[in-house]
Structures are given as C-alpha cells and as structure tokens.
Amino acid sequence: MKSSSDLRSMLKNIDRKGYPAYKGTYGIYDFGNYYLSIDHVQGDPFASPSKLSIEVKGKKAGFPAEFYNAKYKRIALCDHLTRLFYNALSKISFRAKGSGKSGLFSISKCGQEVLERTACTINPSNGDISIHFEAGFPANGRTVNGRELSKMLFDLLPSCAISSLFYKNIDQKALKSAIDLSEDQYNIRTKLDSMGLVAFIADGSILPRESGVSQRPMKHCVAFKSPDSYRVSFDLPHHGEITGMGIPKGITLIVGGGYHGKSTLLKALELGVYDHIKGDGREFVITDPTAMKIRAEDGRSITNTDISMFINNLPNGKDTISFCTEDASGSTSQAANVVEAIETGSSLFLIDEDTSATNFMIRDELMQRVILRDQEPITPFIERVRELYERYGISSIIVAGSCGSYFHPADHIIQMDQYMPKDITMIAKEAAKDFPIVSLPENKHPDPCFDRCFKAGNDLKKDRRIKVKTLGKDAFSINKETVDLRYVEQIVDSEQTAALSYALLYAKLHLMDGTKNLRQIIDELMKLIDTKGLAALLNCKYVNTNLAVVRKQEIMAAINRYRKL
C-alpha cells in the first residue's frame, strides 16, 4: 500500500504526459481516515470513467453494531450512505475541468426502493465500509492533467468521504429513522404468512405517483383507508401499532370503474416486494416477497417450457410439454409466464386484465357452448385459478373492470371507489348467482415438468472478450444478443438489469452443464449472491459496474428470454 503523498507526487510527475500515463496510478493509497483504491483507469478522456473505491475501517467509521447486525439493517444502512455520498458527489462533479468526461464524479442514484447494491457494502464482522464510484480523470486533449486530478482526489473528494461515511459527521437521527423503518418493514414481512396474508397496505398510505415518469408520491391525493372487514393491525417495534388492509391468501378480485385506482393499487402491490424509503407513501405496503406480476408478452421467446396446463392439442400438433418459439402470441406468452413463476416457487400472482390476453383469462359460458372444449386448445386461467391455490398454494390478485366471471371463483372482492377500497364480496356473490358459472375441466392436469437442462455456454467461452451492455431498465445485451425485459415489470432500477445480465452470463459460463435444471441453477446463483455478495457475479477483481439485488423470479425471467439457451 502506498501513501497519499506518493499519489500526489506521481500526479505531479505525469502531468502533461500522454493519457496512458494515468495507468500508473493503479493501487491503494492511505489517506489517513480512509483508503482510496484506483481499481481501473479509463483508456482516454472520452471512455467510460475510471473505477474507484473508498474503504473506511469500522473503528474509524464508528457506526453502532446494532445498525448492521442483521442483513435487512445492513441493506438500509448502505442505502442511506449511498444516498448521502451521491448527494455529496453531485455537488463536486465537473468542478475539475478538462476534455471529455474530465471532472466527473458519479455513484448509484437510488430511487424510492431500498435495494442491496454493490455501490456500498459493510462487513458485518467489523463494520468496515466500502463504497464504489466513478471518476473522469482530467485531460487536456489527450494528455494528462495531473493538477486537476490532484484537485479532485485531494481537495474535493475527502470532504465527501468525511461528511458521508463517518457516523459522527452525519445526521444520526435520520440514519436511525431509516434503520428503524427497515426493522418495522421486516417485522410485517415476516408475519404475513402466519397471519394468512399475502399483502398489507397501511392506512394512510399514498399509492398514486406524481406522474407516469416519476415514482415520487402524488401531492394532495386520497390517502388509503382499509374497509373494516379487512382491517388488521401490527404492533411494530418502533412505529407502534399500525393498521391497514390485509389481503388474505386465496383469490382476490379488485374491481371498480375506470380511473378509480384499481391498477394503482396493483402497482403498489407489485413493488411491495421491496422496502421503500421514508416519505415515499408506500413504506408500509408489504407484499409476499415471491409475488410475480403476470402479463401477456407478445413476441417473447420460449424455450422447452411445459405450457400444457394451459395450452394443448394445437392444430399443427406442436408439442406443448416442451414448447419452443421465438415469437410467442399473447396467450402463449402469458401461459409461459405463469408456468415459469410456478417454477421459481412464487406463491402470489398479480394480474391486470389490461395487460392480459383475453383468451387466456376467460372463455364465457356462451363461448363454451358454441366452441366446444375439444375444439379449443387454450384452457383459460379462470379454469385453473382455484386449482393453483388449492393444489400449489398460489394465491392470485386480479384486477378486472369488464368481466364479472371471476366473481364466482373469487374468495374476496374489493371495489376501488375514488381510490377508496370497499368490501363488496357478499353483494357481488349474490349478484353472480343469476349468471352461469364457467365450467371447469373434469380432470386435474399433471404437474408441469421442470426438468429443463441446458448445456454450457461454449459459444461464449470461445470469445476472448464478452461485451455486456445494459440498456436502462428495459434490456441488456451479451455480445449481439439482446434480452428484452420491458414487460418484467418489477424491475425498478437499471442496476438490477445489469445484475441480471451478469447472472445470466455466470450461469452460462459456470453452471449450465446439461445436468442441472433451471431451478437448481437459479438456486446456486442465489446461494452465491447470499454468501459472496452481488460482486461475485462479475467474476472480476474489482467492481467494474454497480449492481443491485434481484430476485430469483427476475433471474428466471431473464434466462428464459435469452434466445441462445
């Protein structure tokens, strides 16, 4: 390890030399209060910024051990520190001058959700903190501007580190509030199952968002209030007693007129698999962590998936037990999405009729009389929804605004009226008596086959340099193959998309050996992440790109959309 004075001298010596001279700055430097590591230096001032990290020893950082003695607390602590460091960096970015990306400072920009990230980690055994960020090394044209980099690393950066990463210098009440909130959220999440619930929405929650492109809460809107029949309470360690609507296990139908908040409620439940920051309005919207949004997805690829539970006897005789296509229809894609969610162990499906294939969701009694069962290859979801719950323990929350056929199988029916939920189960069930019940298949369908095994990624192993690129939240590419994730709606951050790309790449290179099925492969990936952290997916000596945590449901979705399985 070198001293900070060594780095200062080096920058003075290489000033005005060719830009490659910056390569000599690799290494770890002792800045007294922390260690600065220059992990990767960009090739020129217009290339991707250099990768840097700071490590603060636990004794100097001084964060109380009770703030990181549980995983959910560590995630909340690191999220809070990342936000502080981001705010500090944003004030000094580009204050050093030069060509290209000279003077840039950047780190993960956290949204409304609290996610585990590689950007900031804490060692649970000693409290050591590591934070990873990017910096644009300054240049005049394509020559080193050592004086400006010295300004960045010695004048600007230390104040950010000191103000953000040391307990004595931050707003301790704000940090404790974030840790306490994480403990309350964890408390609710761990109690849902024992209380027979799949979700909880606290009274007073603000569900509508500011706009279609903003996840901040809408101002001056109706606060959520539970119907008396669904109200439950939790005694939380910090918040105290909290009340709200508990959605029971089983089949729940959300109905109501257009623009009355049905889809807004469902969207909040989709994202309730994540914790949210204080002030978001959805801090206490807590959903079963395995919940999966199911929708139609025209054009997606499907590889060797058993969709026979829903689609059989195709006119062309195509096999639906090991179904393959590169251009699925709406109903076929939704059937695959359901089966793949079952494969990952999901115990809650979230479905909105607006994003579903009509012929997958329902065939009414009149259509069944005209088009007989043996003439229709699709078994609609309404005929399987009760079986999914009773046989596999999978609950469903379904938004419906135009079809009342689901009144019959539903256990619970909630009407959204001007963003306020009302229990109309008894009224709807009584009205449904006057309408025919959709007939169900006579025989139970065999369990789906999940023995899909894929061979190693020999095509990738031959490449000396594999190019991985993240395209926002919507997609990623490995070399020239793009994986479309636009309709995997529970991805909330582009760093999750990056994590999915590296998870898929790791699986192809190291786990797909032709003997393990996809469930085993994904379980191994999750075990790797749990034991060694997200950075283990990078298979690199340093964090070359920041990643955010993903669930096994999204990993399954990404792998299944890769056309080169």
Strand content: 15-25%
Number of helices: 15
Oligomer: single chain
CA-CA gap between termini: 44 Å
The stretches of 5 or more residues where confidence is low (pLDDT under 50) are none
Query: Which class do the helix and strand fractions yield?
Result: alpha+beta
Number-wise, the strands total: 28
Give the averaged pLDDT, no decimals: 95
Radius of gyration: 26 Å
Query: Percent range for helical residues?
Result: 25-40%
Report the biggest beta sheet as strand number plus sense, adding barrel if it closes. Answer: 7 strands, mixed
Describe the global form.
globular
Could you walk me through the main structural features you see in this protein, from its secondary elements to its overall organization?
- The chain is α+β, with helices and mostly antiparallel strands.
- 30% of the residues lie in helices and 21% in strands.
- The chain is built from 15 helices and 28 strands.
- Strands 1, 2, 3, 4, 5, 7 and 8 form a seven-stranded mixed sheet that branches.
- β27 (475-478) and β28 form a beta hairpin.
- α3 (71-92) crosses α4 (146-164) and α13 packs across α15 (552-560).
- The longest helix is centred in the N-terminal third of the chain and has 22 residues, at 71-92.
- The radius of gyration is 26 Å and the shape is globular.
